[in-house]
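dumping the sequnces here before i forget
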Amino acid sequence: MSAPTNLDEFIHDLRNPLNNISMYAELGKMQAQQGATAEKLLQTFDTIIAQCQRSSQLLDSLKQHG
Amino acid sequence: MARVLVVDDDQTFLDVAAELLEGLGHQISSCNSLGAAQMMVKSQRFDHLLLDLMLPDGSGLQLLDSLNERQRESTRVTIITGHPSITQSVKSLYGPRVNYLVKPLTITALQQALSEQSIPTTPAVTTPAPQHATSSPQALLVGESPQIKQLISTIERVAATDANVMLMGESGVGKEVVSQAIHQASRAHEPFVATNCGALNKDLINSELFGHEKGAFTGALNRKPGVFEQAGAGTLFLDEITEMPLDLQTNLLRVLESRQFVRVGGQEPLAVQCRVISATNRDEQAIAREKCLREDLYFRLAVFPIHIPPLRERDGDIPILAEHFLNQLNNQHGSGLVLGKPELARLCDYSWPGNVRELRHCIHRAFIMTDPDSRTLQLPDKLGSPFASSEANDPGDFTLKPGQSIEQMERALIEMTLEKLGGDRTRAAKMLGVSTKTLYNRLKAYESEQEHTDVSAN
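..and the predicted 3d for all of it:
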């Protein structure tokens, strides 16, 4: 993952996966309340984990270039 | 339930937003670029737009410029941004009809944004007519020129009938506004449905027009009413009718002739009750020449053809329109900018190839760019958009004006062509469609004319 060129851009890029984590967590809550299948819930959690990894990679790229 | 368009370049976000909002009972469409969103708002109507501020091909705010007057009044807009600092500056530009959410979003924030009632209305000089009241065309059409008065009287006459209407006029003259005026003057209690034939997907055009039954084709998850059904006994506005592929025009012709249609994959015939108003930026001659509309369909659609004049032919309306647009912006933003005399003169001198739309955009841009401490609206150094057609794209000041002689025009054209080609007379002659000898003779005549003038001046 390439590093963003300035701090503003970096913050913008980091908010995208953070936003997805928040939205998928909300979706997971809704699915649990509506009695969704375990498979559906697992897909949602997998996406949350993938988005956490995306955030982590972004932070790593900042460290490398900072 | 709201019809929501979500525009964001992050596919993961689009997927989750669609799933969450559908779970909350809304109808969601999504796309990942400004260009795609501009196409979608042309062909469909949305109650709410959720826009990312930064898109790969522009800003989400640019989509607001693509909305027509009616959509501006009825569509709520929420900008989703990753920059909290941006919200304040943008807020001051776009006023109360736009609200903001900062990432990361929560479901409560989204619910709140979607449940907020439509735009708070501020007192406007010309308030658009409410949806459920019959009103006169004067409420929507601004101007006092003989041409606009003639147009209003034509609209009043056609409103009293059930005839299908075809509107013809250049891009930006206000064809949709005229169609709304006809609707308001005749069937205001019924729905007004607008669709852009140029933006419809060729494979789905029948489904868009006539609707489809559940399971009619892959992806038809539910029964969907088409625009004919949505319009009921109201008005169906088919914009850019000449952009509809010829082979598909046959289906439309059959429906207009039989006054019946069937949903794709369905059996039950449904009656056409609406008035069809179609629009094109071509005139009859161009339609016939380019063969872009079946003749039999033309006669069905253009029972009552109306030509809307370009702004340059009713330039007396420019000051009234400019004041009108500025007043609208002043009311929306609580400001009190006025138009100075020099600015007004510049607006009146320009030829407005993009017509009323171009004038409205020009005033809007100037409003945004004007120094907040200024009392008068500051116009940009150069008027006109880079997309404006014809003379605005041409170099020089070569404009046709009544009263100029053919000799003057010919000389201007020759000089402009030579200038463009860096003085290459052979190429210029070829481009002008004359022999090199004729061109030389003309240039010689201009030279001796010039010498004569110089001698007389001395």
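Chain B has four domains: 3-115, 137-307, 315-392, 394-457.
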